[in-house]
Amino acid sequence: MSHQQIPRKRTFLMCSPEHFEVTYAINPWMDPAVSVDRTSAVHQWGRLRETLVGLGHTVHLLTPEAGLPDMVYAANGAFVVDGTVYGARFKHEQRTAEAQAHQAFYETHGWRYVAAAETNEGEGDFAYLPEAHGGLILAGYGFRTEPVAHAEAQEVLGRPVVSLRLVDPRFYHLDTALTVLDDRTISYFPGAFSHAAQRVLVQLFPDAVIADEVDAFAFGLNLVSDGRNVVLNSAATGLAAKLEAAGYTPVPVELTELRKGGGSVKCCVAELRH
Length: 274
What we know:
The chain has helices at residues 38-54, 98-108, 147-157, 195-204, 213-217, 237-245, 256-259; strands at 11-15, 58-62, 78-81, 84-87, 112-114, 126-129, 136-141, 161-165, 178-182, 185-188, 209-210, 224-225, 229-233, 249-253, 270-271. It is of the alpha/beta class. The protein has a single domain (11-271), classed as L-arginine/glycine Amidinotransferase, Chain A. The chain has a 3-stranded mixed beta sheet with strand order 2-1-15, sandwiched between helices. A 3-stranded mixed beta sheet has the order 3-4-5, sandwiched between helices. A 3-stranded mixed beta sheet has the order 6-7-8, sandwiched between helices. A hairpin with a 2-residue loop joins strand 9 (178-182) and strand 10.
């Protein structure tokens, strides 16, 4: 059933891919043998940023650092709820130093930053729905973020956390398989989750928009929504049609180069929730 969706102005953090390359493989999408066109990557990323600004949102920029090619995936550096920043602690050593860059940004800008003791990859594995069940955090585990980090996040952020087990390594972060469309609605691909997690999602979100395998593999769920406008990978045409039928406005963008690192729209965009 479609209904009128209300967009809400958001504040985001992004990081230019000017040092982006694929020289190692820490997820199934990365292949160092496949060449990356960095000029094209920067151009596509720029179009994504322009799209978000054009929709009325504020985009802050994190300074990219040489030797940290995955910094473009800014969503992984922290998880922010109500002005409190739960910092990331990356699983793979290739990304470890990114956490310090994010911490420096947040502390410089006056945010309350809490360093993590447990392994977690920020908004890659955490999603927030402020109006669902009184304010709910969905949290993924199985490949990157450790389940104990879910308890730590709950203590730091003071919001109930629902743990969801990811079972397909191609969906190594929650944000590749599940997305928040508005303050109480999600879209997800059931096949990425354990049977128990699927049952939990059906109970909590009976009206969710269900994505199929084709769009999930096209990184369609790795999207950014302001409650009405949904910025998503242009390859996910089926999901775009489902979202439109549900009352949202799909805004397709092309991110072919950044997909080579195992990410798309959402991976590139952290939300700063004051």
